[in-house]
Design goal:
With about 120 residues, the chain is mainly α. Helix content is about 90%, strand content about 0%.
């Protein structure tokens, strides 16, 4: 009977520990909630703008007409930011292509039988 009591005691302890962990996780997520909301809204806005490029063109044209100096300064900054982003993208792509896991994965795909497993 002692082993059943030990099992029940351990079960109760584990349930209490799990509840404490759930509360701690909930508090941690609550702290990040505002950041996640901003990120989610930004992604939604980017998707909406990508679906409606004419809105972006209209805004850029309006800014260029109404405040040409502001548009000129920010266009230079945006071009610089775009070039840095492209440089980082290409650098990371080169590093990723040299990883042994990727080469092994592609070699396994080429060695696999069947036409659906071939890489283009």
């Amino acid at each position: 009977m002692s082993s059943l009591a030990d099992i029940l005691e351990r079960r109760a302890r584990l349930i209490a520990e799990a509840e404490e962990q759930r509360l701690a996780l909930g508090e941690g997520i609550a702290a990040c909630r505002s950041l996640l909301v901003v990120a989610d809204r930004s992604i939604a806005l980017a998707a909406w703008l990508r679906a409606k490029p004419y809105v972006v063109v209209a805004l850029v044209t309006a800014i260029a007409v109404l405040r040409p100096r502001f548009a000129l300064v920010w266009s230079g900054r945006l071009i610089t930011l775009w070039r840095i982003g492209q440089l980082l993208h290409h650098a990371l792509k080169l590093v990723a292509d040299r990883l042994p896991e990727k080469r092994t994965y592609e070699a396994n795909l080429q060695d696999a039988p069947g036409p659906s497993r071939q890489t283009p």
